[in-house]
């Protein structure tokens, strides 16, 4: 008989994400990692604006809702005054890479010792699917009805690669939620990122390629297919920076 897995104690409330959304999987993985690292009673979340903010209604933990894009600045303050706590910034791509690009990049530049989880669904999900800095070239959104034209907007940001090659950060990775194997790998990345913070190694980030079936105008299964066929080939998965020699 198949056994169901125990629900982590800090994530036992129902969510209000759309069916097929990736946010819920990511939150579950973060909760499992915190529990396995014995940090579930020692966590403070900085929560961004967007569908990521629904996290605040699910978790029974200390948390602060931050102004749009400013979670990395808030987390910098929280971690500096309370270094014994684990601090995680939970944000969307629009929040972290568009509206908050300065704060996100500056925290990485300073190698602040906290962890950032960025759910990249290639649009501003909560507000109806506008273009963000990670919208794919040619992707139609409500603000790019003819498709994203990179000659006008610039090209999509690949943040983990950018900071791994340019800044002295501890850890940078990108994962996804398209199948059990990828979910298990993603969990490993999240754990490595939290572990880097626990060891005091510095800034850690995990970007998650995640479906937004509602704004992509797709079923849940079609959205997973789009990730596999179109988005993962553009945004490679894996670890880009780690302090450990592997
Ligand atoms: C200063 C400010 N500007 C704009 C908004 C409107 N707004 C709310 S959520 C959001 C987009 C969030 O997108 P993303 O971070 O990608 O999260 P998602 O909903 O896709 O998970 C925007 C623009 C706001 N709340 N505050
Ligand atoms: S709008 Fe998109 S990101 Fe937001 S809950 Fe729905 S599927 Fe998820
Ligand atoms: Mg988004």
TrEMBL record:
GO annotation terms (biological process): cellular respiration
Thiamine pyrophosphate enzyme TPP-binding domain residues: 59-208
Keyword vocabulary terms for this entry: Oxidoreductase
Highest taxon in the source lineage: Bacteria
Pfam families: TPP_enzyme_C (PF02775)
GO molecular function list: oxidoreductase activity, acting on the aldehyde or oxo group of donors, iron-sulfur protein as acceptor; thiamine pyrophosphate binding
Protein name: 2-oxoglutarate ferredoxin oxidoreductase subunit beta
Annotated organism of origin: Maledivibacter halophilus
Source taxonomy: Bacteria, Bacillati, Bacillota, Clostridia, Peptostreptococcales
């Amino acid at each position: 008989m198949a056994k169901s897995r125990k629900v982590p104690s800090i994530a036992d409330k129902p969510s209000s994400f759309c069916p097929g959304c990736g946010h819920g999987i990511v939150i579950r993985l973060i909760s499992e990692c915190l529990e396995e690292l014995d940090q579930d009673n020692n966590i403070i979340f900085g929560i961004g604006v967007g569908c990521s903010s629904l996290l605040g209604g699910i978790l029974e933990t200390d948390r602060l809702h931050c102004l749009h894009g400013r979670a990395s600045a808030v987390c910098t303050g929280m971690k500096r005054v309370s270094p014994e706590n684990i601090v995680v910034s939970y944000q969307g791509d629009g929040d972290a890479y568009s509206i908050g690009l300065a704060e996100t990049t500056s925290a990485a530049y300073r190698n602040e010792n906290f962890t950032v989880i960025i759910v990249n669904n290639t649009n501003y999900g909560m507000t109806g699917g506008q273009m963000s800095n990670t919208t794919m070239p040619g992707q139609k959104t409500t603000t790019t009805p003819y498709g994203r034209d990179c000659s006008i907007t610039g090209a999509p940001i690949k943040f983990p690669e950018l900071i791994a090659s340019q800044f002295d950060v501890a850890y940078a990775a990108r994962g996804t939620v398209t199948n059990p194997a990828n979910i298990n790998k993603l969990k490993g990345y999240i754990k490595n990122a939290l572990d880097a913070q626990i060891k005091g190694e510095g800034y850690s980030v995990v970007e998650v390629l995640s479906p937004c079936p509602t704004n992509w105008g797709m079923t849940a299964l079609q959205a997973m297919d789009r990730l596999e066929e179109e988005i993962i080939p553009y945004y490679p998965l894996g670890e880009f920076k780690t302090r450990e020699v592997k």
